[in-house]
Amino acid sequence: MSAYKLQPVTVDQVKAAVGREVGVSPWRTVTQEMIDQFANATDDHQFIHVDPERAARETPFGGTIAHGFLSLSLLSTFAFETLHPIEGSGMGINYGFDSVRFQAPIKTGARVRARFVLADLNVRPSGWIQSSYDVTIEIENSKKPALTARWLTLTVLERKEETA
Description:
Layout: H1 11-16, E1 21-24, E2 28-29, H2 32-42, H3 47-50, H4 52-58, H5 68-82, E3 89-102, E4 111-123, E5 129-139, E6 147-157
Antiparallel strand pairs: 1-4, 2-4, 3-6, 4-5, 5-6
């Protein structure tokens, strides 16, 4: 069970938040173990990610860095820890990205967090809700963020049983 059980909000409350910052996640340390596990899961074992000695010698980073897609994949966890669920939501789905820019590498051992701005909200006739977030993953003590993105998600509301 997660320590991040956030109270649900209504669709009207979410609509009222369009254009505003809706949350900043807790800091999370990106460890070499996380990077190695991601490398194993994706078969991306480039030395800049998994060989600390060689990365220290042969790159300008001073050691290993996280995969860009590892950084991006942390958004789901950051959202779960930070964004209040919509009342009646049954599940959330990644719908895509309108843009993603990797702006600075995340060095092993760095702490990162996500900042969410709700850019748009569309309640579809199906009852599904499409949200667009302007997301920034910040690196502690860095002027440049790791990445910025326009992230699209879908929230599927649970079907209500009709009573006869």
